[in-house]
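user: Kindly work through both lines:
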Amino acid sequence: MSKVLFLNIPGNGHVNPTLGLVDGLVKQGEEVTYYCTEEFRERIENAGATFKNYGEIPNILKDKGKMSANRNTDNMLNHIIEVLDLGENCLEYILDQIKDIKFDYIFHSSMFADGNIISQILKIPSISSFEVFATSKERINGLPFINEEKIKNHPVTEKYRKMANSLTGTYNV
């Protein structure tokens, strides 16, 4: 039996697609510890995992409806900053919570970079999931065009660089 650390973004579109996988892993004898926010506790526990709360972190996805109404490059990049902030706030908390537990591997949402970072720090394998809804052509055509110049000049790029340098300096990852 393996011990699995599951880390996910607290959002229906991220959590719900993983619950069948969690159920299957548990039925195969894996011991799954799943970090998320309180609103997902019951669903995660019903899938057979041990639920762990991220603590008092903000749920960046609560206002997601606003983002879809104002789809443009700046809003998307600002949302990425929020995701990076979430990871920055969670990393130390999670590492402290799991310091005495030996996990065999980590399963994480591709948007939750801490999963990959923690796997590097602990030197254990990780699996990344990428959840995508079936989307109509009209909705896809309505997505903003992101140009490289806008990304280079947006604060998200500098935030990412600072975080990467800090992780390299602190954890050598």
Remarks:
- The chain has one domain: 3-171.
- Residues 63-67 have pLDDT under 50 and may be disordered.
- The longest strand covers residues 31-36.
